[in-house]
Amino acid sequence: MKSILIFSFILTCQVFPQWIQQTSNSSEVLLGISMCSSTSGYIVGTNGLILATTNQGLLWSQKTSGTTNFLRDVYFTDSLKGTIVGESGLILRTTNAGENWTQQTSNTTEHLVHIHFFDSLKGISTGQAGVILKTTNGGINWLSQLSNTTEELSGCFMVDSNIAYAVGFNGTIIKTMNAGQQWVQQVSGTTSNLRSVSFSDNNIGYVVGYNGVILKTTNGGTTWSLQTSGTTNNLFAVCFTSAEIGAAVGTSKILRTIDGGETWITQSVAFTGDLYDVDFGNPELGWTVGQQGKIFFTNTPVNVTNEQNDQITTFTLNQNYPNPFNPTTNIKFTIPQTFDPLQGGARGGLVTLKVYNILGKEIATLVNEELPAGEHEATFDASNLPSGIYFYQLKASKFVQTNKMVYLK
């Protein structure tokens, strides 16, 4: 049984993790992703491709769509019910977690580009030539709405049952406050093609588009302000998990913010093509998809430090990755500055990281020594162990935390 300890130090107040490639077993262009939990999700792409995972992306398996049309976007309202939109007005719906897909009547031949649901019943889809469709019964029936534009509407977002937004080419932003009975143009302040929109509450929203454009509103779209993205690359998708924390992806680019878009930090990704969509299973677990069948995953918290003094102030024990795993997995944890006597903190004693089986028997000791403040990583190798549930526990001074992990051979 092997264990490897890797030391690293956090020198800045914000920690932005790398994105790890997952295997799609496809070279199709991946255009949309919907994560319905921290472990389960769906991806759609060209030539009718549907991929699904139930284990956090360790395995993405193909589902039968029954079409070769390009599938542009997907949205799951729960673990069983999902809707896909695509070329020539195609709408597919499943009620059994993607095992079977039924074509729904859209009453349009325009390409549908995006879909979003507010709850299990109410959703909208937008597409080329200003098309907007609305459902109030979970995607079974769709009715056309008058958008008052002929621009392609590449992104949409429902804030509640009545308020929704759509964005599109040539700086188009439109809003409804009466469930789509009337859509009203808003002033975006840009002529760039806008591709995606995300709101964290009724007032705070973000839009991204070509040429690195990022717009923000804090008053429900009455005004939109241009943010500094730090890039001129095209941005195709944006997703916010709170008012402060969000991600944007595009051509060779992944951006993250933890301060409501005041600053956007470029994250490292080993890819020079287009990334077309991004979604999160929870605030820490994120996926992005794009050209050449590429899928990238991140699972690290974005903020573990005190911004006043650039020091880590709390212990953290992250979820291991991958999880489930076979046969090795990585465990990251942080030691606060106040725990490090070399940095003026009080000596707190040993740091231990141990692995236990489901009966509580100690299986391995990965760490058992004094460590300096910073981020650390241990690798656990379970090659000689049976499949099953295991627990890893970090102890340091008065801090104790235990997390669960799953070993699948």
Structure, briefly:
By secondary structure, this protein is mainly beta. It is built from no helices and 38 strands.
Topology:
Blueprint: E1 3-8, E2 20-22, E3 30-35, E4 41-45, E5 50-53, E6 61-63, E7 71-76, E8 82-86, E9 91-94, E10 102-104, E11 112-117, E12 123-127, E13 132-135, E14 143-145, E15 153-158, E16 164-168, E17 172-176, E18 184-186, E19 194-199, E20 205-209, E21 214-217, E22 225-227, E23 235-240, E24 246-250, E25 253-257, E26 265-267, E27 275-280, E28 286-290, E29 295-298, E30 305-306, E31 311-312, E32 316-317, E33 328-335, E34 351-357, E35 362-369, E36 374-381, E37 388-396, E38 399-407
Antiparallel strand pairs: 1-36, 2-29, 3-4, 4-5, 5-6, 7-8, 8-9, 9-10, 11-12, 12-13, 13-14, 15-16, 16-17, 17-18, 19-20, 20-21, 21-22, 23-24, 24-25, 25-26, 27-28, 28-29, 30-31, 32-33, 33-36, 34-35, 34-37, 37-38
The overall number of domains is 2
Across the major sheet, the strand order is: 1-36-33-32
Fraction in beta strands? over 45%
In the CATH classification, which architecture of the largest domain applies?
7 Propeller
Radius of gyration: 23 Å
Number of helices: 0
Largest sheet: 4 strands, antiparallel
CATH superfamily of the largest domain: YVTN repeat-like/Quinoprotein amine dehydrogenase
* Total count of strands: 38
Instruction: Give the helix proportion (percent range).
Output: under 10%
Structural class of the helices, strands and pairings?
A: mainly beta
Q: Distance N terminus to C terminus?
A: 15 Å
Structural shape: globular
Low-confidence spans: 1-17, 303-311, 340-348
